[in-house]
């Protein structure tokens, strides 16, 4: 799509005014100023006007949240527990979480009103990596890590190969970074239980190329231009 049409569709300016913005060097595509009116924008391009990222997503919005423990990842709860939506105070578009984190799990949760993206990330064969930091009670041997990574039985289902590294060890606990490509219910907890490990703390830190980053507990942010570039890439695959 032509850049002026793209900017007009994003509500930045009329096509005519968009051309003025382009000619005056205020428009960047993928971080570079463009002044060529004939520039075509691809779905994977990121566009900024006066260094503000432009979102042409047909009304779609994309957020990341650092979910604290004690919140459920759905829009309502029959038991009256707090929902993650209560944390999105400044969001006035109806969004829903992409997949779930357990009530007791913290960390990265994506929220959107884009059903296609939700399907892409949550479909069983998505292959999109999700990385967790797990603190377990006691120690774990290299053989146990190998077993965990080669696939374990979590109640009649053998998990796909994954990766896991030990990042910290104390007298009583061990911290692991585990990356899986699946998203079965309580998968990481069940995988560790399958090798007789008890989880003390579980947090998701990454989904694909989107990182939890510096968000504090309960904080949320709109996805930035780099993250949107990744979203557009997986949507156009
Ligand atoms: N695996 C779990 O056990 N819990 C989560 O919340 C996510 C992945």
Structural description of this entry:
It is a single chain. The chain is α+β, with helices and mostly antiparallel strands and 237 residues long. It folds into three domains: 52 residues, Structural Genomics Hypothetical 15.5 Kd Protein In mrcA-pckA Intergenic Region, Chain A, CATH 3.10.290; 91 residues, Pseudouridine synthase I, catalytic domain, N-terminal subdomain (Alpha-Beta Plaits, 2-Layer Sandwich); 78 residues, Alpha-L RNA-binding motif (Alpha-Beta Plaits, 2-Layer Sandwich), CATH 3.30.70. It contains six helices and 13 strands. The strands form two sheets. Strands 5, 6, 7, 8, 9, 10, 11, 12 and 13 form a nine-stranded mixed sheet that branches. Strand 9 and strand 10 form a beta hairpin. Helix 1 packs across helix 2. The protein is elongated, with a radius of gyration of 21 Å. The mean pLDDT is 93. It binds uracil. The site of uracil has 8 residues, from helix 5.
